[in-house]
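Format notes (please read before filing issues)

Several people have asked whether sequences and structure tokens are stored in separate files. They are not. Every record keeps both together, in the order shown below: the sequence lines, then the token lines. Line labels are part of the format and must not be stripped during preprocessing.
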Amino acid sequence: MSTSTDQSPDSQTMSTSTPAHQSSLDSPPISTSNNIGKDILLWKKKKVNASILAIATATWVLLDIYQYNFLNIASWITMAIVVVLFLGGNIMRLVGRQAPTVPDWEMSEQSALVAGNTLRELLEEGLRWMLNVGAQSEWFEFAKVVGALWLFAWISSKLDFLTLSYIGVVGSLTVPVIYVKYEDKIKGCRTRIRVQAKRWCDIVEEKLKRMKNKNSKLGVDNKEKKT
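Then the structure lines:
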């Protein structure tokens, strides 16, 4: 008896489609951390935004205005959490329910690699930006960056670190929403400011060139008089 080795078209298509389907299952899931960050910045998760703003405001008021010690506040908060968990666990045992357990928090190797690569990319971008601004950018870009850094240094010298951090948190929760809502107006205003600043820079540069040419002419005339 002879056995046929030919395969039907359906079996061939199934055999060819199986690796692709398996590879799609084996592929790692897409990370949603960027989407969560965008949702928080754009106030799409209002409860999370309100919680962050409330915690930041309470921390700033207690530490900066009322001058409480951080370790003192941390001790009181920890003590309150322990008391609430103790009472809740005893009540649940009296009722006959199971007390809450601590969840297992594990960090996979892939998450650690993603975090390390993200930090490395941020450092590389920062170094590349400083190199572009310092060695390869135009005079206007250099002046703009130096002016912004000087303004930030002046503001930080007038405020303490806690107040500056609180302003940063509030700004990160309000500036993106305002920018998205009034993007066209902000871009138009930024373009007008950029054109005006560039015009002033060109005027200053032209005056410096005239002064340089005038000084060079005076030097030539002095040399001719001496000769």
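For reference, the curators noted about this record: The mean pLDDT is 78. The chain has eight helices and no strands.
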